[in-house]
User: What shape does this take?
Amino acid sequence: MKDPRRSIERFCFRHPNFGIPNLMRYITAANVAFWLLGAVNSRFISYLMFDPALILRGQIWRLVSFIFCPPTMGLLAFLVFYFYYWIGSTLENQWGVGQFTIYFFSGVLMTVIYGFVIYFVTGLSVMLSSEYIYLSMFFSYAVLYPNMQVLFMYLIPIKIKYLAIANAVFFIYSVLTTSFPLNLLPVVALLNFLIFCGGELWNMRPRRPSGNTVNFRREAARIRREQKDRLYTHKCAVCGRTDTDYPELEFRYCSKCQGYHCFCSDHINNHIHFTE
Assistant: This one.
């Protein structure tokens, strides 16, 4: 089966001008603006929420405006705005403008599609916000930078992977306790997370240490034998990109991994070391 992440990377490589630079800057600015308008008139926010019934009646702006809904109308919202701006900007720097644009709006698109599916199947007109889209960004950041420390409650230093685990537990609880089909909405909204970070998440699984010393010459010879019939010489063990598909990309081997594993320049310093 073709890896959708590789197709996205290949598309963005061939279309370097695709995407919206500084996307989170615009989204955060819109969040702040709508927060101010909501502070003046609290009913204003209800005109931004995704509502299939009202969209079909002509309020088509709701297809997009729901992503600008503030997560809360309290002063804490500004801390949330900054937090997600920081996360989104980091992901854009890591993946590139094109991939992050696809990542964000694929979450929006899947949320919209499932919202209409619920409406046409059950008749329920569900009002949606961008809560799970931003949660998807948080999970992606935690997979890429699990040991990054943040200040929980802006006082207690804690690694972001532990916050992600706590959020995952709450996420699973919500899925199990919410009635069908509404319980699948957060799962659908997080599909883009699995597409983009599923490989990294799989590599983070616990591995049994082997303790064997690696013979790099023998491993190099084995790799060369396996690559005789292949169309590439180097392939990244994380993202799967090859020097054939991306001739301008630099590939290197990690001396800290057990075995002879190749990584592209984007992942040579950002991967889980192989232990067997």
About this structure: The longest strand covers residues 149-152.
